[in-house]
Design goal:
Order of helices and strands: EHEHEHEHHEHEHEHEHEEEEH
Strand content: 15-25%
Distance between the termini: 58 Å
Shape: globular
Number of strands: 12
Largest sheet: 7 strands, parallel
CATH architecture of the largest domain: 3-Layer(aba) Sandwich
Oligomer: single chain
Number of helices: 10
Length: 309
């Protein structure tokens, strides 16, 4: 029996991990394997997946549309050899991934026969200006989507969701556009009722040269950080950031990790799990346009966040 693949794509900070978490938390008895690809040496997204364990496989320090192609195909082959094997596979791409190249890889005849690409879901922040859909990467992510999910509607200004729906339909008329409040999407849209049919082939279009547009800069510390100082540091870094995410302990709440997210100019901080022994107290990944932010500048600014020792 073939194992359908759900490919989840979307720009940096769109809310892909929230969607995947909701799917895994409401699996309704389905055996779902998740493959999480993060762009950077520290794979924060894999740690944020609900119940991350043998069912969640991390592909780090690269992008599965280019440098990790072989790893993706080997990972899928490993999943398909499990006993029992999963009933569904969810692949969460990096926010800088061109899904057309990933679709092309998944058209490998062996993979297509055993694990057909069933659905491509593109998650989009409802607050995204419609004009941003003409960005080359956003356009590529939208072009291959079967379903477009609008996230973060509660954070967008009134009317933003409607404007985005109109803009999406103007550029991708066949796609189904749904609201994904807190990552919730009807499972019937994402998981087929039957899988005993021939897999459909997709035409992702001609292969384009890879464009390295973003880079990741990682910062770690063995010491807890001050929330007040972090707020000041992010204020300085924000104009240069496309995305940031991390886990850290604070002097205000020692012994517990805080989950930090920065996207679309918004920063959020929520309590996480109990701190894990043996790992750095602070681990944060910053994503910026190439050449915009140097490692020396980042380290100097983030060093001010470390609590007095």
């Amino acid at each position: 029996m073939p194992v359908p693949i759900l490919l989840v794509t979307g720009f940096l900070g769109a809310g892909k991990t929230t969607v995947v978490n909701h799917l895994l938390a409401h699996a309704e008895g389905r055996r779902i394997a998740a493959v999480v690809n993060d762009f950077g040496a520290i794979n924060i997204d894999a740690e944020l997946i609900v119940g991350a364990s043998d069912g969640v496989i991390s592909l780090a320090n690269g992008c599965i549309c280019c440098s990790l192609e072989g790893d993706l195909l080997r990972t899928l082959s490993t999943l398909l050899r499990r006993d029992p094997k999963p009933e569904y596979i969810v692949i969460e791409t990096s926010g800088v991934a061109d899904p057309a190249d990933i679709v092309r890889n998944l058209m490998d005849p062996v993979i297509l026969r055993e694990a057909p690409l069933e659905t491509v879901l593109c998650v989009m922040d409802a607050a995204t200006p419609p004009a941003a859909l003409d960005d080359a990467l956003n356009r590529s992510q939208l072009r291959v989507a079967d379903i477009v999910a609008l996230s973060k509607l509660d954070l967008a200004e009134e009317g933003a969701g409607g404007r985005m729906r109109e803009a999406i339909r103007a550029r991708r008329a066949p796609a189904v556009v749904v609201d994904a409040q807190h990552g919730e999407i009807p499972s019937a849209l994402l998981f087929p009722a039957t899988v005993d049919r021939a897999p459909a082939r997709r035409e992702p279009g001609p292969k384009r040269p890879a464009e390295q547009r973003f880079e990741t800069l990682s910062w770690t510390s063995d010491h807890r950080i001050s929330l007040v100082r972090l707020q000041q540091a992010i204020g300085k870094l924000a104009p240069k950031l496309a995305r940031a995410k991390g886990l850290f302990e604070t002097v205000e709440q020692p012994g517990r990790q805080m989950v930090f997210q920065f996207a679309a100019g918004r920063a959020t901080l929520v309590p996480g799990e109990v701190a894990t022994p043996g790992v750095p107290a602070a681990r944060i990944v910053f994503i910026a346009e190439l050449g915009v932010l140097s490692k020396a500048e980042l380290d100097a600014i983030m060093a001010t966040c470390v609590a007095d020792r």
